[in-house]
Amino acid sequence: MILDAHNHLRHYASLFRGVEPTPLFDWLQNCRDVESGTKVEFAGDKLFAKVLRQDTGARDAFKWETHREYVDLQYILGGGEVIEWAPAAKLVADVRYDEKTDLQFHAPAEADALLNMQDGLFIFLFPADGHKPLVSDRENLQIHKVIAKIHKSLLVL
Fold first, then answer.
1. Which of 69, 102, 134, 137 is the most exposed place for a label (fewest CB within 10 A)?
2. What CATH number does the domain containing 116 carry?
3. How much is the pTM?
4. What does the pLDDT look like over 124-149, one tens digit per residue?
């Protein structure tokens, strides 16, 4: 996991290999008015981003998740949420892995960290990072963010 501020995102360009991240980084700086649900491709199905506005809620309303093939770059544009974090190795799967969506859900578990995500922050979540997003921060009813999906073959891991 990498958690940092928007103005430091370009410092992580060296994580990328085989693709230039500048078009994604430039778009993220200017996407606040893009309609929720919009998907933008930067390198086909290997690198794309989707704008989301989602309601937050109680901790028990959401499930732990992991991804095997993609890294999430979650870039917060407004509102707020808590993302619960734990090592993926600690989590117990409660349904089969879905190859099409690259999504594995897990049984309830205790978080090792609570990440208070607000406008101006981003987080890289790697396959080793179990996470439970959309938990209410008790101040915001909604989160406005972009989730960029980066295939692990495009990153130095």
1. 69
2. 2.60.120.370
3. 0.96
4. 999 999 999 999 999 999 999 999 99
